[in-house]
Amino acid sequence: MPGASRPPAPAAGQSPLAARVFARLADGRFHSGEALAGHLDVSRSAVWKAAGTLRALGAELDAVRNRGYRLNAASEPLAAAAIRRHLPRDVRAQVAKLETVWSIASTNTALLERAGAGSGASEVLLAEYQSAGRGRRGRAWLAPPGGAICLSLSWMFRAVPPDLGALGLVIGVCVLRALKALGAQGPALKWPNDLLLDERKLGGVLIDLRAESAGPAYVVIGIGLNVALGERLLRKIAQAGLPATDLASAGLATGSRNRIAAALIGACVKGLGGFEREGLKSFMEEWRSADALRGRPVEVRTVEGTTSRGLARGIDVHGALIVETAQGVRRFISGDVTVRPA
């Protein structure tokens, strides 16, 4: 039984105890409370409390008498130096700053408040856990420590690109390229910002913009990718009406999370350069090939609250969704889309 002693506060610059326990358990093996306490120079009570913190954050953690603690699945901690090593050399030169943190409210919000790295350069921020992680329209994004990649990347355009509204589609194609390079079979894109695998949500893209009417445009691109959420969280998400999946379920989570993060960053940095030069057109063919909605009956709900039903007919040259309705062909630049029964 844990005692009543209070865990010591972390020293300046030191990670929270929960983060250090997580790093020790990242191999997926059992570690006794005594061994963890000795390695981390804390009490067994402090280890027990840190394990409780990890569970509260969503980590699936076993505790077995005479064996200790273990994570249900091994999960490599995110590390900025390891991610940078995996980046292609030309991309590495364009990433001015790359950070990983244990916990933050929102990686997108944090980068949006910064000045930016200048034209043609990027800052990247990743977190193991976001207390206020969000998707489109302020929806919560659920991701336990070690279970996902929560990544934000900034970019400064010299001038506002004509196709800026289609940037989310472009990033979707970039993520698709990274997933295919990692061995994913059959990933798809659902307008406007979802990544699918086997008809289930694998991840999403969130774009935040800070721009003047004339001048540079500063964008922050958020990417959430499910790596190994665990059965409990997948069931919880499904109960909310949003069937999800992860790379582990597809047999693709055996590799390094740092390598996966580097693949995403590399594909996005290269893609942003292409988008700045050529706009959406150089990404159109790949997007259309991966379109999960094309030819299917859909329902579109707009911000204004209107609902339209019809057959999805792909996207136009500006990234708008085209839907053939009973009242004629309609064009949507934003909205939520669901697939209706045939």
| Biggest beta sheet summary | 7 strands, mixed
Mean pLDDT: 88
Number of helices: 10
**CATH fold label of the largest domain:** BirA Bifunctional Protein, domain 2
Question: How do the helices and strands follow one another from N- to C-terminus?
Answer: HHHEEHHEHEEHEEEEHHHEEEEE
Tell me the count of domains.
3
**Backbone CA Rg:** 21 Å
Number of separate strands: 14
Q: Based on Cα principal axes, name the global outline.
A: globular
Low-confidence stretches are 1-13
Per CATH, the superfamily of the largest domain is: Bira Bifunctional Protein, Domain 2
Strand order of the largest sheet: 3-4-5-9-8-7-6
Relative strand content: 25-35%
What does this structure look like?
The protein is α+β, with helices and mostly antiparallel strands and 342 residues long. It has 3 domains: 55 residues, Arc Repressor Mutant, subunit A; 209 residues, BirA Bifunctional Protein, domain 2 (2-Layer Sandwich); 47 residues, SH3 type barrels (Roll). Helices cover 29% and strands 27% of the residues. The protein is built from 10 helices and 14 strands. The protein has a 7-stranded mixed β-sheet. A 5-stranded antiparallel β-sheet has the order 13-12-11-10-14, with no helix packed on it. Helix 1 crosses helix 3, helix 4 crosses helix 9 and helix 7 packs across helix 9. The protein is globular. The termini are far apart. The N terminus is likely disordered.
